[in-house]
Amino acid sequence: MQRELAIQRVLERETPWDILIIGGGATGASLLLDAATRGYSAILLEQYDFGKGTSSRSTKLVHGGVRYLAQGNISLVREALRERSLLRRNAPHVVQEMSFLVPCRNLWQRLWYGIGFKAYDLLAARSDFRPARSLRRDACLQAVSTLRPDQVAGGVLYSDGQFDDTRLLIDILQTAIAHGGIALNYFPVTDLIKNPAGQVTGVAARDSESGQTFTLPARVVINATGPFCDRIRQQDSPHEQPLLTTSQGIHVVLPKRFLPGNTAVIVPKTSDGRVIFLIPWLDHVVVGTTDTPLDEPVIEPRPQTQEVEFLLKTAAQYLTQAPTVDDILSVFTGIRPLVRPQGNAGNRSTSRLSRDHTILRSPSGLVTITGGKWTTARKMAEDCLDRASAWSGLPHRPSRTVELPIQPSNQPLQETDRWARSNDDSQTPSAPAAGVVSPPTKRDPPLTEPLVPGYTLSRADVLWSVRHQMARTIEDVLARRSRLLFLNVAAARQAAPAVADLLMQELHRDHAWRDDQRQQFFQTTKAFECNGPSSPTGKNQP
To answer: How far apart are CA 30 and CA 59, in angstroms?
Structure first.
């Protein structure tokens, strides 16, 4: 997964691609994997970094969707539960089973939710996840030691999946590349190319790093840009009516002490009808999510004060220690692409809009896929390529991803161990070759030493993400190749200077580039701060 090699392959290409995908989120990556494993020549272009948008900002759940069951969307829940099992089987290194407790205040709630989660298990068919069961009050308090005793008279314990979204995304891309696909970040599509008959025959694109422009012909162009898909559609046809309405959801990240065990808590119905999760994740606690309508999507959404207050208030109703703004270590915000029902243009409620995916083809032949969710991304890609290949006349080849293992990222320590052990000043080359870092001297800290106390991220991890995971910026490393920015804003800022120095050396940039990177990253971190009376910039450690 090396950017220079990918660009070289693009330059050497003399025939049109079978499949060209615009967008490097969960849907785009899944499309690339499906296309490459079917034997199609396939390329993915992402204008920023892979997973920069919605796909890195999920609730970290691989699940059927409890609230969709309550809404009566049985087909979506059944499909998502099937995909949940496939993801756990195909990517066991990143998808794990987690227990969720539904606190109940009376016997009626316990019976009601017990029946609901039994139905959830039935829809999962022959799932290998543990079935739901009813718990007495003392068992609930034992499962979640920080649960307020006055809020629970019993409960229901059920199982779902948890994962690290961008770790899985990078693994999907690496698996696709291993099967012949090409993925490029920081490579925006600047125009759609059409023949005299008005049919899309490829794209014009630009390498943001070099400024070089490219013309890439393709038999099928797929718009998989999530919340931004209408921008590509209107580029294809300026009079195209918007397909989507958007909403944003935020998650606040708290220290582990608020939920010290391994069991998550779900509030299936809050005061305004939402579903809220309190979830252990990477030795922290994630609380989310909200659902706030937006007029238009933005690449770096920011949390609203009332959203933060709502999550803190809800968490305080169920935890023995009420979290405050000063306890928040980070806040991350994602945008949902929700397909707009016909005749619903004036409806500002988004919480009940369907998360089903939509696939359509414009008169020019541009294929658009949008909607859906992380758990169903594999199925979305399968459906889209089945239709796209039929529409374009590509030879029919069945999907192979149902039983395809996702390759885990290798650990970086083996490759960098020889540098970590080195302490000979004379071995330092005066001009390191591309992709080769100077070995540390006696004055340098070991490559395996954590960059920030309390977190495992090391220089070795940074080097690995640059060399083998196409990280190009501080944000790529600290937000998506590691999750430090999502876990703790203050810790990410502390690690940034060392990351900038390593990137400068690895990518052969100058000091002005490094300084600009630091400033850009500092601006980005503001979107992960609490938008309230005080901010989470450093008092607390998990």
So the answer is: 19
